[in-house]
Amino acid sequence: MRRRLAEIEPEAGERASLHADDLPHGDVVAVYRAMGSELDPEPLARALAASGAVLCLPVVLQRDAPMIFRLWSPDDPLEMDAAGCPAPLPLAEDIDPDLIITPLLAFDDFGARLGQGGGYYDRTFAARPRATRIGFAFSDQRVDRLTTEPHDIPLHGVLTEVGYTPARKADPA
Protein backbone atom coordinates (compact mmCIF):
# COMPACT_ATOMS: atom_id res chain seq x y z
CA MET A 1 0.00 0.00 0.00
CA ARG A 2 2.79 2.46 0.87
CA ARG A 3 4.36 1.92 -2.56
CA ARG A 4 1.06 2.80 -4.20
CA LEU A 5 0.70 5.90 -2.02
CA ALA A 6 4.23 7.02 -2.91
CA GLU A 7 3.36 6.72 -6.60
CA ILE A 8 0.05 8.60 -6.46
CA GLU A 9 1.06 11.17 -3.80
CA PRO A 10 4.57 12.32 -4.85
CA GLU A 11 4.09 15.74 -3.19
CA ALA A 12 2.90 14.35 0.17
CA GLY A 13 6.21 15.08 1.92
CA GLU A 14 6.06 18.68 0.75
CA ARG A 15 2.46 19.02 1.96
CA ALA A 16 3.37 17.48 5.33
CA SER A 17 6.19 20.00 5.73
CA LEU A 18 3.60 22.79 5.67
CA HIS A 19 2.49 21.51 9.10
CA ALA A 20 5.98 21.58 10.67
CA ASP A 21 4.93 24.36 13.07
CA ASP A 22 2.24 22.06 14.51
CA LEU A 23 4.81 19.55 15.79
CA PRO A 24 5.86 19.49 19.44
CA HIS A 25 8.94 21.68 19.91
CA GLY A 26 12.37 20.17 19.47
CA ASP A 27 15.71 21.99 19.61
CA VAL A 28 17.48 18.95 18.14
CA VAL A 29 15.34 16.99 15.69
CA ALA A 30 16.18 13.57 14.27
CA VAL A 31 14.85 12.93 10.79
CA TYR A 32 15.70 10.10 8.41
CA ARG A 33 16.64 9.66 4.76
CA ALA A 34 13.78 8.02 2.87
CA MET A 35 14.38 4.62 1.36
CA GLY A 36 12.02 2.93 -1.05
CA SER A 37 8.44 4.09 -0.56
CA GLU A 38 8.94 5.86 2.79
CA LEU A 39 7.45 9.34 2.92
CA ASP A 40 10.28 11.72 2.08
CA PRO A 41 11.10 13.93 5.11
CA GLU A 42 13.55 16.20 3.25
CA PRO A 43 11.03 19.06 2.82
CA LEU A 44 10.18 18.71 6.53
CA ALA A 45 13.90 18.74 7.42
CA ARG A 46 14.39 21.95 5.46
CA ALA A 47 11.35 23.57 7.13
CA LEU A 48 12.59 22.56 10.59
CA ALA A 49 16.09 23.86 9.87
CA ALA A 50 14.64 27.15 8.60
CA SER A 51 12.78 27.51 11.91
CA GLY A 52 16.04 27.10 13.85
CA ALA A 53 16.08 23.39 14.71
CA VAL A 54 19.37 21.51 14.71
CA LEU A 55 19.03 18.34 12.61
CA CYS A 56 20.53 14.90 12.97
CA LEU A 57 20.16 11.47 11.38
CA PRO A 58 20.10 8.02 12.96
CA VAL A 59 23.10 5.73 12.55
CA VAL A 60 23.09 1.97 13.08
CA LEU A 61 26.48 0.89 14.41
CA GLN A 62 25.35 -2.57 15.64
CA ARG A 63 22.21 -4.38 14.55
CA ASP A 64 21.10 -5.28 18.12
CA ALA A 65 21.85 -1.92 19.76
CA PRO A 66 20.01 1.40 19.91
CA MET A 67 20.88 3.79 17.11
CA ILE A 68 23.07 6.80 17.72
CA PHE A 69 22.44 10.17 16.09
CA ARG A 70 24.89 12.39 14.23
CA LEU A 71 24.62 16.06 13.40
CA TRP A 72 23.43 16.57 9.82
CA SER A 73 22.39 19.26 7.34
CA PRO A 74 20.45 18.45 4.15
CA ASP A 75 23.44 18.88 1.84
CA ASP A 76 25.98 16.94 3.95
CA PRO A 77 27.58 13.81 2.43
CA LEU A 78 26.31 10.43 3.60
CA GLU A 79 27.52 6.84 3.71
CA MET A 80 25.71 3.57 4.40
CA ASP A 81 25.54 2.44 8.02
CA ALA A 82 25.51 -1.14 9.35
CA ALA A 83 21.84 -1.54 8.32
CA GLY A 84 22.42 -0.20 4.80
CA CYS A 85 20.75 3.18 5.48
CA PRO A 86 22.22 6.56 4.48
CA ALA A 87 23.91 8.13 7.51
CA PRO A 88 26.29 11.00 8.30
CA LEU A 89 30.00 10.30 8.10
CA PRO A 90 31.80 9.25 11.33
CA LEU A 91 33.45 12.69 11.58
CA ALA A 92 30.00 14.24 12.22
CA GLU A 93 29.31 15.06 15.88
CA ASP A 94 27.21 12.63 17.93
CA ILE A 95 24.15 14.40 19.34
CA ASP A 96 21.04 13.53 21.36
CA PRO A 97 17.72 14.56 19.78
CA ASP A 98 14.77 15.69 21.84
CA LEU A 99 12.35 15.04 18.94
CA ILE A 100 12.61 11.92 16.76
CA ILE A 101 10.77 11.66 13.43
CA THR A 102 10.33 8.01 12.40
CA PRO A 103 9.13 6.23 9.26
CA LEU A 104 6.54 3.47 9.56
CA LEU A 105 4.36 1.02 7.66
CA ALA A 106 1.15 1.63 9.61
CA PHE A 107 -0.07 3.58 12.65
CA ASP A 108 -3.17 3.99 14.75
CA ASP A 109 -4.65 6.86 16.76
CA PHE A 110 -3.27 5.45 20.03
CA GLY A 111 0.44 5.83 19.22
CA ALA A 112 1.08 2.31 17.97
CA ARG A 113 3.30 1.98 14.93
CA LEU A 114 4.24 -0.88 12.68
CA GLY A 115 7.87 -0.55 11.65
CA GLN A 116 9.96 -2.51 9.19
CA GLY A 117 10.58 -5.29 11.71
CA GLY A 118 14.20 -4.66 12.68
CA GLY A 119 13.41 -3.11 16.06
CA TYR A 120 15.89 -0.26 15.53
CA TYR A 121 13.49 2.51 16.51
CA ASP A 122 11.93 0.64 19.45
CA ARG A 123 15.40 -0.04 20.94
CA THR A 124 16.32 3.59 20.34
CA PHE A 125 13.06 4.90 21.85
CA ALA A 126 13.61 2.71 24.93
CA ALA A 127 17.15 4.11 25.31
CA ARG A 128 15.87 7.71 24.99
CA PRO A 129 12.58 7.79 26.92
CA ARG A 130 12.53 11.59 27.21
CA ALA A 131 12.62 12.16 23.44
CA THR A 132 9.31 12.99 21.76
CA ARG A 133 8.47 10.31 19.18
CA ILE A 134 6.62 11.35 16.02
CA GLY A 135 5.66 9.09 13.13
CA PHE A 136 5.88 10.45 9.59
CA ALA A 137 3.55 8.79 7.11
CA PHE A 138 0.90 9.07 4.46
CA SER A 139 -2.51 9.63 6.07
CA ASP A 140 -3.79 6.46 4.36
CA GLN A 141 -1.31 4.38 6.40
CA ARG A 142 -3.61 4.87 9.40
CA VAL A 143 -5.44 1.75 10.58
CA ASP A 144 -8.14 1.35 13.23
CA ARG A 145 -6.00 -0.47 15.78
CA LEU A 146 -2.62 -2.20 15.78
CA THR A 147 -1.73 -5.09 18.06
CA THR A 148 1.38 -4.24 20.06
CA GLU A 149 4.01 -6.27 21.88
CA PRO A 150 5.51 -5.36 25.29
CA HIS A 151 8.70 -4.05 23.59
CA ASP A 152 6.77 -1.66 21.30
CA ILE A 153 7.24 1.96 22.37
CA PRO A 154 4.28 4.21 21.47
CA LEU A 155 4.49 7.40 19.47
CA HIS A 156 3.43 10.76 20.85
CA GLY A 157 1.79 11.63 17.52
CA VAL A 158 1.93 11.34 13.74
CA LEU A 159 2.54 13.93 11.03
CA THR A 160 0.99 13.28 7.62
CA GLU A 161 0.28 15.33 4.52
CA VAL A 162 -3.02 16.44 6.12
CA GLY A 163 -1.53 17.58 9.44
CA TYR A 164 -0.26 16.61 12.88
CA THR A 165 -2.35 14.41 15.19
CA PRO A 166 -1.32 13.74 18.82
CA ALA A 167 -1.79 10.14 19.99
CA ARG A 168 -4.96 9.50 21.98
CA LYS A 169 -4.96 7.71 25.29
CA ALA A 170 -6.25 4.16 24.97
CA ASP A 171 -9.67 3.46 26.43
CA PRO A 172 -9.44 1.54 29.74
CA ALA A 173 -10.01 -2.16 29.15
From TrEMBL:
Enzyme Commission number(s) of this protein? 6.3.3.2
Keyword terms, alphabetized = ATP-binding, Ligase, Magnesium, Metal-binding, Nucleotide-binding
Its cofactor is: Mg(2+)
Q: Which domain of life is it from?
A: Bacteria
Q: Give a yes or no for keyword Repeat in this entry.
A: no
Question: By its UniProt entry, which InterPro entries does this protein fall under?
Answer: FTHF_cligase (IPR002698), FTHF_cligase-like_sf (IPR024185), NagB/RpiA_transferase-like (IPR037171)
Provide an example Pfam family for this protein.
5-FTHF_cyc-lig
**Catalytic activities:** (6S)-5-formyl-5,6,7,8-tetrahydrofolate + ATP = (6R)-5,10-methenyltetrahydrofolate + ADP + phosphate
Q: Name one GO molecular function term.
A: 5-formyltetrahydrofolate cyclo-ligase activity
**Membership in a protein family:** Belongs to the 5-formyltetrahydrofolate cyclo-ligase family.
- Name of the protein this chain belongs to: 5-formyltetrahydrofolate cyclo-ligase
